[in-house]
Amino acid sequence: MHFSHTPTLTPDSSVFSIGTRLGLALVLGLGAATLGWSQETDFSPFARFGLGTSQGTLNPNLASMGGITSVSANNLVVNADQPAAAAGLTNPTFQGSIHVQGMRLSEGDATSTALTGGPGNFGLVIKQPRSRSALQVGLTPLTSKAFAVTRATTDTTLGNIVESYDGTGGLARAYLGFAHGWRGRHWINAGSADSVLISSNGLDVGAQVDHWFGNALQTATLDIADLSFRDVRTTISSRHRATGAVLGAEAFQVLKAKYNEYKQFQGSWLFRMGGTWSPSRALNTDYYRLVESTLILNNVVTGVDTSAFDEQVLSGTIPAKWTAGAGIQWDGPTGNRIGLYVDHHSQAWSEAATTLPHLMDGSGSWGDASTTAVGLVWTPGRKPGKIVRPTYRAGYSQSTLPVVLNSADEADAYPLLERRVSLGLNTPLKGSRSASQLHLGMDVGQRYTELESIHRETNLRLHVGVTVTPYVKNLWLTPRLYD
């Protein structure tokens, strides 16, 4: 007997067939009720362990500027995606964050919602004050698969059926990097009779070694109420690992600076640029799939027969990635600042069509990915008696994701697109005499295809984070002169 909605896998099914069925259960639910509750980093049916619909950087500062990572807007943020940025930080800095998001998925008239969230980037930059060298270490989640979804359907032959999908684990990125910077100095006129020596240009370079690791376990259960039929349980385990490197560089040039005859700063224009490159890396997956018939014995689901088992080591290549960005910044005499930045990312995921077909099922294929982002940062000037002030951020990004989806008749293919609008701010921690900051951010976005009936996702993310730096009179890594 054939039942078209069973989650049982055939021997030639892809690794993510359960994930595809999960997406169909969420989006195309044919039964009376569909319920989803999740704590995923990315709840999309096309997440592909973060490779298909990567959330990008989960850092409040960077996310609230459209996800700009290749060029830094200030020296207060730990940037896990730009190895050179660590050299530009003023002090040793620790950073952590969390995020929460609500998502709505739709295909045609069918919709589903989910509430997700988790940790963001946790990073530490270790450097001595005034040093041009820095060590960077951290951990960043790529995606997780912690979900529990249930769907109830009724079949004319089998009767009442309950499908459940559960997942645990995910994929993360650990990194270790080193950065070093150089500064050039230049004398500029201060009035007509004096001059001031300033840092007029600089170059920071850095390198990271990182490791992607994680194990995702997905279980699909088909529970048929009629005791004449056995139930079916399918378990898929995918243990991923990949080691690679990221190279980065940042530079700045003072275009114009002005001081008065009292050597007081009057304003300056600054140009920044940066970029990163990550060579291709091998992705290895220890994969096994178990399909078994089950019965409920003493209220415990027990496997009584194995109908399919597959265990193998899968391998493929993640394509190289490059980013480039630039920005122009104006600093005023009262500490006010405004900056405009642009950023572009590109990755030829179409090359993965032959090396990573096991990460993509028949409903889609790999395609080249790119992202263009624009970010704005503004800091108001100091007011008399009120030195503490926040910095505001805004951004917009437009992306072509590496997933290409087929139409219902498979006659045409449409790339999965994404656009996001973001806002955020950071402010000094009250009661702290150091440069420690509290960071808040939000961004709303949509993933879609040009043919509306194929796929629509809308999500809203909220970020909260903190950066902790030492007080100037109690600097980390600096020996005390007295105790």
Task: Give structural notes.
The chain is 4% helix and 60% strand. The chain is mainly β and 483 residues long. It has a 14-stranded antiparallel β-barrel with strand order 2-4-5-7-8-9-10-13-14-16-17-18-19-20. Strand 6 and strand 7 form a beta hairpin. The chain is elongated. The termini are far apart.
Please count the helical segments.
Answer: 3
Task: Give the topology string: H per helix, E per strand.
Answer: HEHEEEEEEEEEEEEEHEEEEEE
| Straight-line distance between termini | 82 Å
- What is the CATH domain class? Mainly Beta
* Residues in β-strands, percent: over 45%
Instruction: Point out poorly predicted stretches.
Output: 1-40
Brief overview, please?
The chain is built from three helices and 20 strands.
SSE blueprint and pairings:
Elements: H1 17-27, E1 33-38, H2 60-63, E2 93-107, E3 110-119, E4 122-126, E5 133-144, E6 147-155, E7 159-190, E8 194-224, E9 231-259, E10 265-278, E11 281-297, E12 300-318, E13 321-331, E14 337-347, H3 352-355, E15 364-366, E16 369-379, E17 391-406, E18 413-428, E19 437-448, E20 456-468
Antiparallel strand pairs: 1-6, 2-3, 2-4, 2-20, 4-5, 5-7, 6-7, 7-8, 8-9, 9-10, 9-11, 10-13, 11-12, 13-14, 14-16, 15-17, 16-17, 17-18, 18-19, 19-20
